[in-house]
Amino acid sequence: MEIRDKIVVLLAGGRIVQHQDDTELTDEELYALLPDDVHEHIVFQRWSSQPVSNYTLRMCGELVNMITSFVHDQGARGVVVTCGIQALAEISYLADLVWDLNPPLIFTGSIFNADSPNSESRLRLSQSVRAALSGSCTGKGVLICIQDAIYSPADVLRISNFNRGGLLAFPESPLGVFSQPSGTYISLRFPRHRYIQKLTQPLARNIPVLMASLGENDLILRALLDNKKFEELDGLIVSGLGDGDVPSSWVPLLRKILRAEIPTVLTSRYPDGIVQPNENYEGSAAQLLEIGLISGGMLSPYQARIKLAVALASDLKGEELANYMRGGK
Fold this sequence. Notes:
29% of the residues lie in helices and 16% in strands. With 329 residues, the protein is α/β, with parallel strands linked by helices. The protein has 2 domains: 7-187, L-asparaginase, N-terminal domain (Rossmann fold), CATH 3.40.50.1170; 209-325, Rossmann fold (3-Layer(aba) Sandwich). The strands form 3 sheets. An 8-stranded mixed sheet has the order 2-1-3-4-5-6-9-10, with helices on both faces. Strands 11-12-13-14 form a 4-stranded parallel sheet, sandwiched between helices. A two-stranded antiparallel sheet has the order 7-8.
């Protein structure tokens, strides 16, 4: 199907394009959701419709490659992607780290199925397509269309799985909003500077997140070290309490991981947290950074995992890797 100068609506799953019986909407049903005046400007393409819980980082990397091909090789004017809302922020954040093209790439989704009484499919799809057609989203990187506004993926935090406020832009304001009743997209500001990486190899497969909690012991960390699969680790994300602190019993075990030259990134477990080496004691963020953990700065544990996978696939090492990881969202 010819997609040159069209907006590609790529169906990568999600309730926004599914009936309550989990079957996907047909093209005819999708066209019926969109205003007549945009029909000539769009074309539908389909990708994997399996649950996002089965997605891997490499699959998401392949998705970005497909989207790049639509724009770079086939001349698409822009791309709108539907996906499961439970991973919307993570998939779009990954794409934003590597997307270096000017045409808009907008992700959207819905908590509700397309044929449910509370469905937002018509609204979200229409707003996403109109934003992509507006010209105001060109050159702004990857975007998320949610809650009558456009956001940067780095600013979106998932806080609920059952209400319309399930995504929260925090702490930044939207990049743009939709006026009512016309639905015209109004740009408000530019996103922050982005550090685009060129991938030289597939995304890393094995980067677990190890989260500290009150009274946590070192059982999981010891199991990780004792397992024969330890040598398959590509990296590790440590999600610490408060400023990034962990139980003191973790320190010698983390030293072993560092001696194995496994990149290990320290984050705060708080959604709006930041790694701060304020105090120096056994297991403190200050000590962990001193022994060789990489600061994740303001990154959430999940952003840090994705960003480390991109960094390793870009062959970043040493100080270059450390600078990239702590260089903002």
